[in-house]
Each structure stands twice: as structure tokens, then as C-alpha cells.
Amino acid sequence: MNYAVLDLETTGHSAGDEMIQVGLVLLDESLTVVRSYSSFVKPTIPIPPFITQLTGIDESMVADAPELDEVLLEMIPLLSDAVLVAHNVAFDAGFLNSALDRCGYLAFSGRRLDTIDLLRILYPTLTTYQLGAVTELFGIEHDNHHRADSDAMATAELFIECCGKLKGLPLLTLQRLANLLGDELDDLGWFVAQAALQKETETSIDPDAYHYFRQFAMKAGDWTEEQHPRDTDDAGDSVADWTFPQFLAHIKQEIAALVPGYEEREPQNMMFQEVIDALEEERHLLIEAGTGTGKSLGYLIPALYYGVQQNKKIVVSTHTINLQEQLRARDLPLLQAVMPYPFQAAVFKGRGNYLCLRKFEGKVNMRDFAAPAEDRITAAQMVVWLGESGHGDQEELNFGNRGADFWGTVASDADSCLNRSCPWFKRCYYHRAKQEANIADVVITNHSMLFTDIRADHRLLPAYEHLILDEAHHLEEVAGKHLGTQVSYYSVQHPVFRLCKDARNGQLIVLKSRLANENVEKTQKWREEIDEVIPVFGDLRDEWDKLFELLYTFTSSGGGMGAKAAVSDTGGAETGQYVLRLRGGKLPGHWGDAQLIEEAINGYLSQIIRPLDKVFAAIKDEIDDPGIAALVTDLSGTIKDLARARDDLRQFIKADKSDTVYWLEANSNSRAKSVQLYAVPADVSNQLRNYFFDIKKSVILTSATLSVQKSFQYACEQMGLAQDEQQGRLKTVQLPSPFNYREQALVIIPRNFPVLKGASGDPMFNDMLVKSLTDAAIETNGRMLVLFTSYRMLKQVYEPLKEALTASGITVLGQGIDSSNRSKLTRRFQQQQASVLLGTSSFWEGVDIPGDALSCLAIVRLPFQPPNHPLVEAKSELLQEQNQNPFMKLSIPQAVIRFKQGFGRLVRTASDRGIVLIYDTRVIDTYYGKYFLYSLPGPKIETMHIDQIVPRIREWFAPSKEGVEQ
């Protein structure tokens, strides 16, 4: 079988567009390149500027090129009897057939293979399938991106890589894939089946490479075999022989030998000492450590010394799973290599992050797919992934569009867990992670998991007395979210659809048919009881829809009390984003109607939950069939989801707790289906004291942004630590920056810039902003990140800025326009050197763009939260009751911390150098502006007329003359 690898460049993606370049690479059966063909094609329509910008192909290059008919005549013989391969084959084959038809030739009807599908299945952990990025990852030479000849050759080499990976898979995996993909995915299924047939002729079992269980080839074996390394290692005897200074000196020496260019950093040395002192003296520590400190090692090294010496478990918690993964992938392997004695570290996440192998096996064996084509690809990805994953953690996977929905049906959860009676128990990824956490010296978890553990009566995390909180500025926000409740339209809709989508579909219907095959005396009775419940689902769905339509009406009309502003400044009521706060004594008119509908919903849910609970319990007692037992366990879990939603909804509709803030959110796009109900404690400081600071021996809180104007007062008050500070149980430390900000960062404030009116700008402000950003971007050749507080304003700036920069060859990337995925946008920004990235809320922190990729950061507005967001409003009311100023005690500190996070995007390494443009003149015109500027880590700050900005940028980046300060 021969393969023809095709790539086309075209004038666009629409039906009327035409080819402008063709690239074709022919491979024989042994996957050797036997011929290549490429040609420009003369189109009959102009080449748009954006295509020239993307491909580098302009009118002059195609002026003398052969016409389409001539090119096709040369291609047709090369395509005969070949399998067509392309990166997104539907696009290339569609264009090819359209061209063939236009010129009077027969369409290509041979087999087709898509390298994107192959990559998705064979490399399930890849973070991108974009051709340029993947070839770079695979080390494939690919110099001219978006040129058909170069792209076709790169795709051919990628296809050869995929074939090699496919051939190397174990036979069981290939058979599973062939069975999964089958005829439904046509040519892909055929291709995998061919590989499986080939493998069957070889000796394919490699007992050392995989563990084989229930017809799956897996990397992970039994977790019950896990042992702590010091239980078996002689080095454990030497643990007590080390003092901390000796230990630290040894670690530094080993790191220096392993890491090229390693230099000691004084702020990190200070952090080592502060953390070990806090652990040994059993007190709390608030420590602000800026970018470049080496914060992760700053707490991990003393934690591993103290924990192992004292035989105490240390729990480290991060806000983001990203940071958890960074610790797992980067910091812990380094420490494993340099430690003088072995240690065990474990990463432990929320249960829904782990695959339930029992559910996955059932799904695959039953071919239970809601979206047949997409779900089969996702399941195939996961079959390959089982042979590569030691953790079974969804973070490792890169799902397609419906992948998250599929994951939801196979994720581990407490309510449907069979525990020791599950055939997969000894291989269960969640129980493996829990066991690893139990025997570990250091457990890496996240803030959400800390509070999930609290709500589960501390049954999830192992017992601990020493806690390190990284990204600690998020603790209070996460506490509110987890100690409150949230109900959405889908809280009932999803479980109901799983149980009984209609009279013929759903888990209950499957259970009924399975019971028909059992010989137990009571099966008929159980089937009748299920039949009695099924009609209730229709009534429940009707009432649920009615309730959410009514709640949407309240929210969009302001509940009859005047419409409230938007949830946050990233949208606004003007963009159809609504929020309505509920107050106990002043509920909206007609709230009684919502209470009546909730009464009916509560009744219907009880009519479903009570009888089914009894039926399921009886079936578990009387039927031994493991398949039915597993199904009933899953059904019981879904019933518990409904019971939780019922109880949470009742609490919300009452809205009667004085210490809780109740509000509704919705947007006009999805209307009733977008409605979210929130009930959150207004002040969580007492809970934080009760759960952590009063009962733990030592809690260490660290972040790059904990202080406001060099003071930790705000953090102490928000987290309930003021009392500990007074009693000497808390120490606060602000580490000096390891960077020379005066030399590395220049802050420019245009003093004649207009004051911004309204959340999303006015025409005059936006016009001046676009002009200034354009000038600055041209001077820095892109490499600019622009931070907005309003998504609407970002959209208003996007098009005119893009238009203004096109002539200079600078690309504009907009969050929510070019992509909503932060990682993808950041990667594109780094790959396209001349580009400007416009971002809102999620880009203010957690984005790491070191080096030359980012030279200019623009902050359009100070990041104040809207004062009328219900939670901010409630916190402000509490402060007013205490005769305190909410603006100074709450709004300013919140905005300063956010502002510091945004500023921190610019300088990421000791060699980074750049400019920060602040277009909000309130930093120099108001009494509170100093709080923002004084909180920065010492950059040079200059104000100037807007016309002076570009010359000053040019001067700043010019090579400095010796002895002359920039």
C-alpha cells in the first residue's frame, strides 16, 4: 500500500476559495519517501493580505504559475492506488475534490487518513496538534510553516512517526483499538486493524513492558505493592546524622553539579531559614517571595528535611493544578536526584481527576457512546494512555471537543465506588494516589482538595499538622467557594439524563432490561417499581425548566428591584451578563412563585430518590452478578447527586442565613440554562482559624503577592491571622527581590491620557489607546501583552488594533476571539515573534513568558472589582458595620494584589528587560494611586506626554553606553 501525503495552501477556507500551492510526498509500503511534487497554482481570484501574511505567498509568486488544470493533470497519476494522508484530511481532500470536479475530473475516492486523528490516539498526552508545534516537539525539520511543500514533507515524517508508534503498541491495545474504531470510523479503523493483524503474526507479549489485566495493557501494576523507599533502603539510617546547614550545603552542591549556571540566591537562602524556623518552632509564617526567588525549592527543601527528620507528614497545597504538575514534573525529580537520603512525595488531587477503570471498562465493552465518532476517538486515546500512565490523572490527557463530557462518565467518584469488592481495586488510580499520600513524606495537593477533605470529615487526606500554602492569596476565595454551595441548571439535568433520558434510554432502562434476564423471584417487582418512577422524570424536567425560566426572568430584570451590574468587569450587564443579589428581608416580588415550584421539584425528587434507594439496596443484597452490581452502584451515585442538588436548592430558595451571601448569575446567550445559584459565606476568617490556624502546629503561607504597600495587614485580616500576629504565633516576611528591577523594568504613565469613563471605555479613550498601543507595538516589533479588565473593551480594541498593525506584519491575538484557551494563546504568542496578545482576567496571573518573547506589558485599567458584585457588596457592608472604609480596607488591597500579579508577567528571569505602560492615570492623579506604585518591587517609574513614549522606549532598549544609566 502506497501513501500520498498532501498539503494545500489556499486563498481561504470557503467554498469559493482556490488553491495557490500544492505539496505532495509519496511513500511506499516500507514508508520510504519515493517522490515529492510541489507547485504554485495560478488562482483566478486575488490572494487576501492575511493569507500572504500567513504563508508568505503573494501575487508575484503565482503570476507565472501553471493553472489548476495543468497541476491536477500532474497530480492525478500520483494519487491513484494510494491512501491519501493529510493533517486535517477533510480540508485538503475537500478542496482537492472540489478542484477535480471544477476541472471535469473524477473525485478522489480512495482511503483517507488524518494525522491529527492518529496523533490524538497515539500521543494522547500531547498538548497541541498544530503542525508546527508538533514537528518541533518531534524534532522534525520544518523551516517554512504554511508552505505546502514544507508542510507536506513535515506531515509525511509525522505520519512515519505515527506508524512506528502504532507498530510498537502491545497486541492487546491494538486489538482494543481495532474493536473500538471498527467500521464506524472507516479508514482509520481499517488502518489500525491492519496493524493488529500484522502484530498477531509476531511474538508480541512483553511481560516486562506492561501489566496485563482484564484485556488491557497497562503501565501501572498493583498499588498494594507500593513501599516507602526508606523501608527498604539502608540510607534511611543516616537521616538523623544531618544538621540543617550540612543538609542545605549538600543539596546546593548537588544542584550546582546538575544544573548548568546554577547560582545561589540570597532571597532563597532567607526563605530556607524562615521556613525551617517556622516548622521547628511550630508557628505560622506569611512570606512574600517574588518571581525568581525559587519559591518552590524554598519551601520544599526545608519541608523535606524537617518532615523526614521528625517523621512528620508535610502537606503542600497550591491554588492551581498547573503548579501541582510543575512540582511533580520539575522540582520533585530534581530533589530526588540531589537528596542525601530517599524520600517519598505524592501528588493527590480531587477524586474526579482520576479514571475509574471499572466504569471505563464497562463503557468500552458496552460501546456506550453518546457522541459515537468523538467518543470512540476519546476512548481510543485512553486505551493507549493506560499503557503509558502511572497516575490515571486526566491532566495528562488532551481531550477533543466532547472529551470532557466523556471523562465525566468514567471519572472516579465516592458515591459509585465499590471499594474492595471492585475487580479493579488493587489497580485503582484514586486508591493508588491515596495510598501514596498515606506513605509519603510530602503530599502535594490543592486548595480545593483541602476544603473537600474538610467537608468529608477529613477522610480523604492523611492526617497532618504542618501545612504549606503556595499561591496563598487565593485561599480565602477558594474557602468561600467550597464552604458555600452552588447549583446550576445542570445540577439536576445531567443526573436525570444519565438515569432516564427518555422511555428507551438511560441507566434505569439498562438496569430494567438486565433484570429481565435474572432468575431471582423479585426481579419482576423491582422492574414494576422502576416503571412507577420513570413517569416522574418527565414531571421533574418540566418543573425544573419552569423554575430556571423564572429565575432567569428575575435575574435579567433585576428581580423587580432595579437591575444589578455585571458579575465582573470582564463582561457587564451590557453584554448580557446579569447578576442579582437576594436579601433575606427583601426577596424579589413573585419569589413565592419560585418557592412553590421548588416545593414541587422537592416532591418529585423525593418520589425518585426514596423508592430507587430501596430498590437498589435490595438488588445489591440479592443479586451476585458483578455487572449488575456495578451498574446499581453507579445508579446509587447518581441518586446521591440528585439528593445533594435537592438539599442545596432548598437552602438557596430559603435564603435565610444572615452570614451567607445569596445571588443569581445568568447570561442572555444561554438564558435559563446559564442560571447559577450561589450561597457563599461573607467572611470565612473564622472557618480558616477553626480548620487551620488554631489546630495546625505550623501553617506557612507564601505567594508573590501577599503585601499591600509593604504591609501584610490585609492578608492577616482576610484569613483570620491578626490574633496570631498579636500573640507572636505568626511571623510576616517580605523577601527582597532577586532581580534588579531598576535596571530591568521601566514603568511609563502617559500623564495626558484621558480618564476612562465607564467599565468598557468610550470612543475617545479607545481611539487614543489603539493609537498608543500601535506605536508602542511597532517600536517593540510586537512582543507585547495588553491586560484588560473588561472583555467588551478588549473586543472594541481588537479590530482597529489588528488593522493598524497589519501593514507592519504584527499579528494581534485576542482572548475569546482567536481562542479561549490560555495555554494555546500563550504558545501562539511565543511562537509568532511579531505579535500582540490581548488578555483579560486569566492573563493577570499564572502566565509565564520569559525571555525576548515579551518586552512590553500594557495595563489598560487598574483591576478593581465591581463594588456591586454581591460578595464585594456584602464584605463592604460588614466593614461599614465596624465603622471601617470598604474602599480602603477591601477594594484597594484587592486591586493592588491583582495589579502586582499583572506587573509580575513582565520580568520572569534575571536577564529579562522591558517596559510597562499604565494607561490608567489614577495611579498619579488620585490619593490612592501611591498604594499601587509603592507596592511594585522598585522599577523605574516615569510620567510623560504620550508623544514621548516611543522615543523613551527606543532609548530604553538601545544598548546602554558604558557608565550611562538608562
Write the layout of secondary structure elements.
Elements (H helix, E strand, L loop, with lengths): L1 E9 L8 E9 L5 E8 L8 H7 L3 H4 L5 H12 L2 E5 L2 H14 L9 E3 H8 L8 H8 L9 H21 L2 H11 L4 H15 L10 E3 L2 E3 L10 H4 L11 H15 L7 H15 L3 E5 L6 H16 L3 E5 L2 H18 L6 E3 L9 H10 L5 H15 L16 H8 L18 H11 L2 E5 H9 L10 E4 L5 H9 L1 E4 L1 H10 L7 H10 L6 H34 L20 E6 L8 H32 L3 H29 L5 E8 L8 E6 L3 H9 L4 E6 L9 H6 L3 H5 L3 E5 L6 H4 E6 L12 H18 L3 E4 L3 H16 L4 E4 L7 H10 L3 E5 L16 E4 L10 H12 L4 H18 L10 E5 L3 H4 L3 H6 L5 E5 L4 H9 L9
Parallel strand pairs: 1-4, 4-5, 8-17, 8-18, 9-11, 9-12, 10-11, 12-17, 19-24, 19-25, 20-22, 20-23, 21-22, 23-24
Antiparallel strand pairs: 1-2, 2-3, 6-7, 13-16, 14-15, 15-16
Helix pairs in contact: 5-7, 5-16, 6-7, 8-9, 8-16, 11-14, 12-13, 19-20, 21-25, 22-23, 22-25, 23-24, 24-25, 30-31, 30-37, 33-34
Rounded average pLDDT: 87
Structural class: alpha/beta
Tally of alpha and pi helices: 37
Question: What strand line-up does the widest sheet have?
Answer: 10-11-9-12-17-8-18
Largest sheet: 7 strands, parallel
Using DSSP, what is the number of strands?
A: 25
> How much strand?
5-15%
Helical amount: 40-55%
The end-to-end distance, rounded to whole angstroms, is 65 Å
Q: C-alpha Rg, in Å?
A: 31 Å
